């Protein structure tokens, strides 16, 4: 026995631990009642070391299994079964559960390894060897093994999955849904389910698409999905809807397609075959949104506008369907014209507070014929209530075809109901429904009397079979008469409906204006009208105290939602007694007490609601009110003190008086932007302004990026600082070389003594990022800025060719002072790149995934960022960034589809306290850059990383990543760091445009020009004196002086690689 290994307490303990975890930690129960195991967790645990023994847990299990069941001198080592293509840890777990772990070497020899299961290889040779005395009843053992095997192999979910889980007649596959319940019973061709999956079984690529998990009382952290299941009889509808979702994936305003699969599944003793589409889950459809007692119609101007803009997302989705372009692998684009054919509130879902279009089961597509209207198509189903008059004709006569203009009618009906809800709430929606039913009943009565009148198919349609019901037009007139003075948009939506949507088919076809553009244009007109009412004094801006009170109530209602719902549910049984007390007295009750005696209980039953889009609007353009008030108070103090002198000019400007600031004409601030209330100025504070200084060598078109600054003296509102200042530009040198520094701002002392709350970090107004942010703000404000037509950056288009942009925001606790500064940076960079990234912009955070976004517009990205900012500022917990883990997550996701170049722009202070190893970040990056999928493309800088550094200096870790990783790990130089005080274009291009990496290094002026439009005229190498910012890293190997040669002798395509 000297050569035998003796069982140790450690191996026995691990053996016991394995069986305990198997039954109590790794076992889950599916919605169908069948058990299954979290196999990935089993594998991770087996590869782990939980004892002081010099081996992993799998090695101790092997020791114990052989000891208990075999007298073999030799047995497998843990390395033999734990890695590579011969890994068989799951097979080992099955055998351990059956008490036959010592047979693992037999199964491995016959190629029964993890990656080949559950599709079993030929078992004849395996069973023959097992029958040679290794086991008693081979057939019974083999049956048990197969039954156990399916528990370890539940169906794997993944993003954009396309799988078949076929097991005809037996249905042994298990979908890892811990809950499944029908969403509604309205569908006729498919059943829609809400399915819940435990967080460990949702891969990262799928989790990052659907948002944050929720904490389920029974199953822990879980994700929710929508599942649309088709039977074999409706395969053709499934096949078409799948193709439609695939063709329109990543299009705006459309519910996101997550994958599809076919499965033979056993439930309640019956095996059924279904075809399934996995979609992002909508909390409610538009009809449910209107009916919910938790949602109140908007009543402020911007809330109402925000609501209509959210429905414009659906209009944009329709426009996409009507004129669909599908890009093929060879770069060719196929054009199609489509029609949804079933547009109604049921098919408009609210996903993460955004309305999206769903259900393409009845949709039609055909190739576009250039130069003429799309051909008409035949319909087989679709909505009757919201359907156009020609749809009724087509249903009665299958030979009649319809045009895509039926969608315009249906959406007009949706807008009509939506306007009713905005004005009258859900009771108004019910009244409107009753109005249409009554009107159609009268038509039926007239027809029965022998009158020649047409009738619609539906009893609550919006038309009489040919034209719009007169009662619908009259209802719209009624709504206009009830509009609030501040609601300048709903009436225009009703005009759009009456004039262009609920009209004849030919009139709808002849209207060339896209639906979402039509809504946006009316939103723009509504904002102008509202501003006019404010200017004329018809309306008064909301005061801060009123706004603060409304927002507090809104937040309290959101926090009390779940409690209110529970209270309402618990008191349901009591409700009948409350209502009885207000009814007529029965003969047995000669006297009934007043119903008011139960008032407290009745009031408690009311569920606090939320006004639609109030939080979005209130938090869109400003900081929290308490912070604003603190800054205003501090601003008053600092204006009086005036002790700090400007370091950026030889001239010493004086502070404008309060009267000057108030009298200077300037763009009116957004109606929700608080203006600090300043006390009257003292005589000591009254000073004169300084005349502006201009230079003829700087043409106006070359300073267009400083719109509102330039050569004119113009008062500007710095929304991020809460004060008004007058900034003027003065040349400090002459000569061609000094064009880069010809317009350094002369900043008044007031702008240098910023009202900075304790611990906050603000951008200096003289920095390029601040100047450009202010220039953007001056173009338009509020909703006007969001809807105006955007133009792409002419300079960046030379470089951002087929390149995706992802912003990664470091949101750990140490970044708290920088949220306002990061807001300004994103508000500058996002508009520059959004029209050049054709696949949409991406946003990630180092901590959490609730507010991440992928393939979205610039406005959506900024909205997500603001949501994360608001949530972070309200939390009292401490979080630490693990940058290694974050980058691994992003890298893994990118490697799933590395077909487009990408630049990752990271906003951080480099204080990654959750990263335990100082070198782990650089190793992670280096390992990623050496991946086969990237190594051949890195000469073109296929994937690059740009750090934007926040703080009073660039941290050493960012310097090292910028300067040393190339030599240390022999990887391409694709990392750059730029301080937030530096060049704006370098923050985007620094990591992949070679000219930004030219030595010798040159300090960056705090007022250095952010646009490179002047660089082609620089021809003098004469040195000059630079005024350096104390926050600028001085010795970066990627100096902004390298910009000087960007336009010299090389094509932009050569530069971009």
Look at the helices and sheets and give the structural class.
alpha+beta
Helix share, percent: 25-40%
Major β-sheet annotation: 7 strands, mixed
How big a fraction of the residues is strand?
5-15%
Specify the overall morphology. globular
| Total E-strand runs | 26
What's the Cα radius of gyration? 34 Å
- Uncertain runs: 1-7, 562-606, 622-758, 782-788, 999-1057
Mean pLDDT: 75
> Distance N terminus to C terminus?
68 Å
- Helix run count: 37
Walk me through the structure.
The protein is an alpha+beta fold. Helices cover 38% and strands 13% of the residues. The protein is built from 37 helices and 26 strands. Strands 3, 4, 5, 6, 7, 8 and 9 form a seven-stranded mixed beta sheet that branches. Helix 12 runs antiparallel to helix 18 (515-535) and helix 14 (405-448) packs across helix 16 (490-501). The radius of gyration is 34 Å and the shape is globular. 39% of the residues are buried. The model is unreliable at 1-7, 562-606, 622-758, 782-788 and 999-1057 (pLDDT under 50).
């Amino acid at each position: 026995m000297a050569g035998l290994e003796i069982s140790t307490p450690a191996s026995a303990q691990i053996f016991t631990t394995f069986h305990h975890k198997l039954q109590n930690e790794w076992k889950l129960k599916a919605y169908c009642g069948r058990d299954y195991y979290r196999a990935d967790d089993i594998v991770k645990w087996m590869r782990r070391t939980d004892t002081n023994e010099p081996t992993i847990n799998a090695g101790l299990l092997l020791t114990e299994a052989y000891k208990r069941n075999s007298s073999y001198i030799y047995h497998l080592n843990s390395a033999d079964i734990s890695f590579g293509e011969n890994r068989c840890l799951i097979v080992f777990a099955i055998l351990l559960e059956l008490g036959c772990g010592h047979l693992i070497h037999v199964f491995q020899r016959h190629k029964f390894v993890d990656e080949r299961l559950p599709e079993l290889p030929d078992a004849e040779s395996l069973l023959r060897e097992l029958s040679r005395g290794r086991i008693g009843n081979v057939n019974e053992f083999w049956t048990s093994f197969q039954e156990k095997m399916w528990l370890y192999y539940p169906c794997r979910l993944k993003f954009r999955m396309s799988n078949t889980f076929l097991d005809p007649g037996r249905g042994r596959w298990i979908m890892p849904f811990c809950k499944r319940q029908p969403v509604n019973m309205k569908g006729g061709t498919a059943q829609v389910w809400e399915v819940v999956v435990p967080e460990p079984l949702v891969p990262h690529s799928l989790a990052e698409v659907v948002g944050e998990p929720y904490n389920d009382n029974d199953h822990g952290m879980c994700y929710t999905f929508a599942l649309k299941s088709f039977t074999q009889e409706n395969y053709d509808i499934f096949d078409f809807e799948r193709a439609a979702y695939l063709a329109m994936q990543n299009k705006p305003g459309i519910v996101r397609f997550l994958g599809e699969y076919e499965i033979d599944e056993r439930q309640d003793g019956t095996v059924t075959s279904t075809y399934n589409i996995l979609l992002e889950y909508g909390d409610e459809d538009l009809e449910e949104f209107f009916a919910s007692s938790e949602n109140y119609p908007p009543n402020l101007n911007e809330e109402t506008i925000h609501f209509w803009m959210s429905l414009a997302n659906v209009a944009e989705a329709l426009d996409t369907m009507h004129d669909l372009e599908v890009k093929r692998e060879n770069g060719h684009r196929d054009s199609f014209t489509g029609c949804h054919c079933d547009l109604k509130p049921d098919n408009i879902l609210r996903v993460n507070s955004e309305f999206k279009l769903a259900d393409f089961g009845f949709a039609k597509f055909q190739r576009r014929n250039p130069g003429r209207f799309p051909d008409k198509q035949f319909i087989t189903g679709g909505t009757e209530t919201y359907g156009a008059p020609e749809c009724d004709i087509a249903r009665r006569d299958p030979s009649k075809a319809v045009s895509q203009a039926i969608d315009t009618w249906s959406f007009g009906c949706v807008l009509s109901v939506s306007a009713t809800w905005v004005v009258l709430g859900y009771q108004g929606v019910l009244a409107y429904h009753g109005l249409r039913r009554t009107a159609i009943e009268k038509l039926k009565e007239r027809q029965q009397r022998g009158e020649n009148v047409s009738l619609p198919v539906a009893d609550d349609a919006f038309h009489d079979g040919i034209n719009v019901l007169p009662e619908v037009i009259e209802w719209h007139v009624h709504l206009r008469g009830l509009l609030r003075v501040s609601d300048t948009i709903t009436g225009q939506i009703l005009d759009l409906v009456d004039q262009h949507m609920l009209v004849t088919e030919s009139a709808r076809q002849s209207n060339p204006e896209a639906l979402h553009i039509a809504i946006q244009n009316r939103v723009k007109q509504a904002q102008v009208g509202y501003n006019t009412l404010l200017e004329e004094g018809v309306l008064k801006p909301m005061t801060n105290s009123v706004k603060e009170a409304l927002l507090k109530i809104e937040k309290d209602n959101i926090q009390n939602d779940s409690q209110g719902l529970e209270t309402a549910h618990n008191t349901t049984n009591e409700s009948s007694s409350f209502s009885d007390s207000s009814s007529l007295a029965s003969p047995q009750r000669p006297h009934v007490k007043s119903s008011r005696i139960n008032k407290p209980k009745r009031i408690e039953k009311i569920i606090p609601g939320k006004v639609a889009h109030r939080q979005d609007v209130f938090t869109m353009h400003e900081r929290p009110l308490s912070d604003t008030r603190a800054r205003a108070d501090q601003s008053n103090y600092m204006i009086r003190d005036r002790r700090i002198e400007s370091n950026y000019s030889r001239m010493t400007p004086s502070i404008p008086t309060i009267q000057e600031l108030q009298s200077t004409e300037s763009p009116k601030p957004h109606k929700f932007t608080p203006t600090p209330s300043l006390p009257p100025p003292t005589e000591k504070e009254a000073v004169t302004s300084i005349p502006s200084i201009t230079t003829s060598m700087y043409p106006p078109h070359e300073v267009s990026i400083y719109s509102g600054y330039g050569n004119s003296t113009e008062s500007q509102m710095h929304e991020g600082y809460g004060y008004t200042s007058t900034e003027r530009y003065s040349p400090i040198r002459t000569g061609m070389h000094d064009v880069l520094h010809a317009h350094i701002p002369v900043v008044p002392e007031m702008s240098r003594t910023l009202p900075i709350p304790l611990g906050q970090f603000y951008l200096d107004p003289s920095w390029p990022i601040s100047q450009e942010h202010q220039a953007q703000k001056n173009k338009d404000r509020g909703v006007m800025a969001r809807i105006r037509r955007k133009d792409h950056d002419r300079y960046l288009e030379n470089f951002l060719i087929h390149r995706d942009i992802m912003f990664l925001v470091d949101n750990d606790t140490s970044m708290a002072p920088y949220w306002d500064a990061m807001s300004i940076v994103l508000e500058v960079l996002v508009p520059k790149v959004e029209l050049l990234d054709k696949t949409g912009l991406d946003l990630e955070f180092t901590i959490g995934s609730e507010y991440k976004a992928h393939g979205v517009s610039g406005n959506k990205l900024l909205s997500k960022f603001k949501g994360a900012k608001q949530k972070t500022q309200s939390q009292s917990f401490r979080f630490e960034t693990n940058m290694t883990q974050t980058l691994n997550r992003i890298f893994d996701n990118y490697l799933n589809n590395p077909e487009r170049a990408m630049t990752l722009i990271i906003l951080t202070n480099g204080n990654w306290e959750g990263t335990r190893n100082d070198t782990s970040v650089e190793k992670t990056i280096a390992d990623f850059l050496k991946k086969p999928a990237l190594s051949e493309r890195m000469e073109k800088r296929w994937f690059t990383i740009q750090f934007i550094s926040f703080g009073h200096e660039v941290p050493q870790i960012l310097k090292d990543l910028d300067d040393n990783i190339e030599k240390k790990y022999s990887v391409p130089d694709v990392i750059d760091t730029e301080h937030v005080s530096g060049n704006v274009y370098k923050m985007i291009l620094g990591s992949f445009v070679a000219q930004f990496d030219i030595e010798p290094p040159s300090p960056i002026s705090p007022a250095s020009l952010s646009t490179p439009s002047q660089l082609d005229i620089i021809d003098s190498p004469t040195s000059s004196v630079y005024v350096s910012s104390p926050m600028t890293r001085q010795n970066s190997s990627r100096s902004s002086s390298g910009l000087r040669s960007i336009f010299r002798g090389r094509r932009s395509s050569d530069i971009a690689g």
